[in-house]
């Protein structure tokens, strides 16, 4: 009886131990939700951390992956884990290669994540192309905004997918001619904001008619009074055809060089006769009184001009008086005429005043001449 009782007690103790261990194991098993690249799955795991739970599901977070929460975070029953695996995106951008890691699942999402605005027609693959774990390579022909000034004209802004200055000019029909130049050079790679200046240089020939001056042929004519001229033939200018080399830069002339001239019509000379006949010296008779008057008026200097420039010659004529009494027949100015010519004009002036010398009031009074 005692033996049977002892056996029963031992069986009960073993059962208690087994039941206790099973409860502990059940308590360590957890239900965890794992979302990998947008796909959700549920697992049960004894793992205590996010890294362990991922390993239970066959995943391991790499250097370019994103895990939330972090891999060392403790997990509990009902925990959620999100794993976004990195993918290498190789971008061929306008002939240059760049690499970028992304957790995006499609090309379009990756470009948006990278902050790149690219039109559909600038990509070698569709925007919804999936990015596999092994990575993806895509060519991007991205437009660049450049500025062009052609031949000094207004600035143009262009969005272009061309690669070099030369490519762009060819595409836009802005080819350079022989003497043209462009800054920067044709092989310069395009980039946003680049200013391209085209200088248009032209060398052309121009012709125009030019007048050939006629020469003047002069001869003396002893029958004409001194100072008079007669034109027998007016003269006619000739005409020549002149050729110039003209250089323009952006439409503005910078050089004009005469290279030839061809005479079309010869000029005809002007023929002129110049009088050489001296005026006759008037007979003024006795000049003693006039010489005395000139001595008083001008100290006897027949070529003098007064300090104020109004009176001329030995008898100090004003120009109006000189011309009024025929002095212009002898000379333009009284002081240019001879003594005899000046006296001849003075005699006319005296006689016009009734034989009085009142045109020279001061000196006539000094000399006792009638006034």
Number of helices: 8
The largest beta-sheet arranges its strands as: 2-1-4-3
Structural class: alpha/beta
The helix content, as a percent range, equals: 10-25%
The oligomeric state is single chain
CATH class membership of the largest domain: Mainly Alpha
Q: Which range does the strand content fall in?
A: 25-35%
Question: How many DSSP-defined strands?
Answer: 17
How are helices and strands ordered from N to C?
HEEHEEEEHEEEHEEEEEEEEHHHH
Reconstruct the topology from this structure.
Elements lengths: L1 H27 L1 E7 L2 E7 L4 H7 L9 E3 L11 E5 L2 E7 L2 E7 L4 H7 L22 E5 L3 E7 L5 E5 L4 H7 L9 E3 L11 E5 L1 E12 L3 E10 L3 E5 L4 E12 L2 E14 L4 E8 L10 H11 L20 H6 L14 H14 L8 H7 L4
Parallel strand pairs: 1-4, 5-7, 8-11, 13-17
Antiparallel strand pairs: 1-2, 3-4, 5-6, 8-9, 10-11, 12-15, 14-17, 15-16
Explain how this protein is built.
The strands form five sheets. A four-stranded mixed β-sheet has the order 2-1-4-3, covered by helices on one side. A four-stranded mixed β-sheet has the order 9-8-11-10, with no helix packed on it. The protein folds into five domains: 83 residues, Roll (Ubiquitin-like (UB roll)), CATH 3.10.20.30; 54 residues, no CATH class; 56 residues, Phosphatidylinositol 3-kinase Catalytic Subunit, Chain A, domain 1 (Ubiquitin-like (UB roll)), CATH 3.10.20.90; 73 residues, Resuscitation-promoting factor rpfb (Resuscitation-promoting factor rpfb fold), CATH 2.20.230.10; 85 residues, Lysozyme (Orthogonal Bundle), CATH 1.10.530. About 4% of the residues have low confidence. The chain is built from eight helices and 17 strands. The longest helix is centred in the N-terminal third of the chain and has 27 residues. Helix content is 23%, strand content 33%. With 371 residues, it is of the alpha/beta class. β5 and β6 form a beta hairpin. This is Resuscitation-promoting factor Rpf2. GO terms for molecular function: hydrolase activity. Pfam families: DUF348, G5, Transglycosylas. Belongs to the transglycosylase family. Rpf subfamily. It is an enzyme of class 3 (hydrolase).
């Amino acid at each position: 009886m005692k033996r049977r009782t002892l056996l029963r007690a031992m069986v009960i103790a073993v059962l208690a131990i087994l039941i206790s261990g099973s409860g502990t194991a059940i308590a360590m098993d957890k239900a965890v939700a794992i979302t990998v690249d947008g796909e959700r799955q549920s697992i049960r795991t004894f793992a205590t951390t996010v890294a362990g739970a991922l390993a239970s599901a066959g995943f391991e977070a790499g250097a370019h992956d994103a895990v939330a929460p972090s891999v060392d975070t403790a997990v509990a029953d009902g925990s959620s884990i999100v794993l976004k695996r990195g993918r290498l995106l190789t971008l061929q951008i306008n002939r240059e290669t760049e690499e970028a890691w992304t957790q995006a699942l499609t090309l379009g999402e990756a470009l948006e994540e990278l902050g790149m605005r690219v039109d559909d027609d600038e990509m070698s693959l569709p925007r919804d192309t999936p990015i596999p774990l092994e990575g993806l390579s895509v060519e991007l022909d991205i437009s660049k905004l450049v500025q062009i000034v052609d031949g000094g004209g207004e600035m143009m802004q262009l969005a272009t997918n061309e690669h070099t200055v030369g490519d762009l000019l060819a595409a836009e029909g802005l080819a350079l001619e022989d003497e043209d130049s462009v800054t920067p050079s044709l092989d310069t790679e395009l980039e946003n904001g680049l200013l391209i200046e085209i200088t248009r240089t032209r060398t052309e020939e121009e012709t125009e008619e030019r007048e050939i001056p006629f020469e003047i042929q002069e001869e003396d004519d002893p029958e004409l009074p001194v100072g008079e001229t007669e034109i027998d033939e007016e003269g006619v200018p000739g005409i020549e055809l002149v050729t110039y080399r003209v250089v323009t830069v952006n439409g503005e002339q910078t050089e004009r060089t005469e290279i030839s001239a061809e005479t079309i019509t010869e000029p005809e000379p002007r023929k002129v006769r110049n009088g050489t006949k001296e005026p006759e010296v008037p007979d003024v008779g006795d000049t003693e009184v006039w010489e005395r008057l000139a001595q008083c008026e001008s100290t006897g200097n027949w070529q003098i001009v007064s300090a104020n420039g109004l009176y001329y010659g030995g008898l100090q004529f004003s120009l109006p008086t000189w011309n009024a009494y025929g002095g212009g027949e002898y000379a333009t100015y009284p002081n240019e005429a001879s003594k005899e010519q000046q006296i001849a004009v003075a005699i006319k002036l005296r006689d016009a005043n009734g034989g009085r010398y009142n045109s020279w009031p001061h000196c006539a009074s000094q000399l006792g001449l009638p006034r």
